[in-house]
Write a structure and sequence with these properties.
Helix 1 runs parallel beside helix 9 and helix 6 packs across helix 7. The chain is mainly alpha-helical. The protein is about 75% helix and about 0% strand.
Length: about 240
Amino acid sequence: MIFSLKTAELFLRIIFIIAAYIPVVTLAGYMRARIAKKMGDSLPEDFGFLSLNPLVHMSFFSMFVTIICQLMGGSLFVGFGNYIPLDRDAIVGRFRWTKIFFVQMADVIVPFILSVLTAFFLVVLYSYKAVLLISDPLSFRSIATILGTSASYFTITGVSFLLALYVISYALTVLNFLINTCSLLGYALRYGRENRSYGDGIELLSILIFWIFLGPSIDKGIKFLILSMADVLTSTVGIA
């Protein structure tokens, strides 16, 4: 055989990662541009990011790094898209810092919601097996073992895509959370220093304190939601 089973599984995993990466970064980037425009910042639209064209949002560097890591046997998923510039000074009015926060964190909230929705579908389909699937994603042999010998190739393929969607969404959630939190803190400090109005940052500081404490719990929160959904579905709907 020219390709071993392990090599074939690796290339299939890369294909699923790319297939999942495209819609995740497209939706995240589009929603950031849409929310920015809604809040008064038209810079993302001026740069062409208010579009559902995947080529606008895809970062080929991100895809390249992820593919290389997978080929080298690593498990790194670099899920970020193209950088979307913001003109936060253009956002004015009441609750200005809250508006800036939602614009900045739009590409965190969107993939987080996608990861939860993907987990929900897996729980609806497979109940507690979904927890085992998510604990070892993108392994065809593990998926086949968990689902059982009766699972068809079509089923394994569909579940593999859902798991890739979950992994990329989660990776983008964590990555953008770290980047955007640091960026927002930096902007708040610069704004306060330049305008000598540190009191204006109380609203933002309160949000960020909550956000920073929430951050380490994202992974636990997702797993808790999955377990809770599995428990509810199993006990009330009778999904086994």
